[in-house]
Write a structure and sequence with these properties.
197 residues
Length: 197
């Protein structure tokens, strides 16, 4: 028999999965408390026990999607030869994930519009920016790159990746746009290595 915590976790998962499907199909505008409750088959009280608002539930969807995309990108680049190569490879893999329209819709279109860029940034900081900073600091310490301020470089790289992601989402051909975005990202990060000369 499931424990109370297992039942709570199952309810949270059902709500997140239901909200994700609704966001992809209807957008955030069509994802209301009523549509979520009807599709998930849970009570209003059960939903508000876990999430204070629809925005909080959308944030949970965004965080899970963000964490999943980053985790997959990390796994794709476990064999990278150096911290800097791991940063580059993981970033390129993340951009490739955005050719999946469902992932892009949540991470680039609907999520930020619903919960705001500041909240998105807090989630990104938690799941990816700290790791990017660690890679940069390791690469800088080993002489692979030359930077003065890892925090600033991380924010700038994140801004480049965000703009690259937007270019993929807004394009009519996601695969071609992703390849162009990856090439452009490599041109930018290549400058960090040039700083060592």
């Amino acid at each position: 028999m499931p424990t109370q915590e297992q039942r709570r976790e199952a309810t949270r998962n059902r709500l997140i999965e239901t909200a994700r499907k609704l966001i992809i199909a209807e957008g955030v505008q069509g994802t209301t408390t009523r549509t979520i409750l009807d599709a998930a088959g849970v009570s209003r009280g059960a939903m508000y026990h876990h999430y204070a608002s629809v925005e909080d539930l959308v944030a949970a969807v965004y965080e899970r999607e963000s964490k999943g995309a980053i985790q997959q990108a990390l796994e794709n680049n476990e064999a990278a030869s150096s911290p800097f190569e791991q940063l580059i490879g993981t970033s390129l893999s993340w951009l490739e994930a955005l050719t999946d329209f469902d992932v892009a819709k949540i991470l680039i279109i609907e999520g930020p519009a619903a919960i705001g860029w500041e909240r998105c940034r807090k989630i990104e900081t938690k799941h990816s920016l700290a790791q990017m900073k660690a890679w940069l600091e390791e690469a800088n310490a080993s002489g692979e790159i030359k930077i003065e301020n890892a925090d600033l470089v991380v924010r700038m790289l994140n801004a480049i990746l965000t703009e690259a992601a937007l270019s993929i989402v807004r394009s009519k051909g996601a695969r071609a746009a992703q390849e162009e975005a990856q090439r452009t990202f490599l041109q930018f990060v290549g400058g960090l290595k040039k700083g060592t000369s």
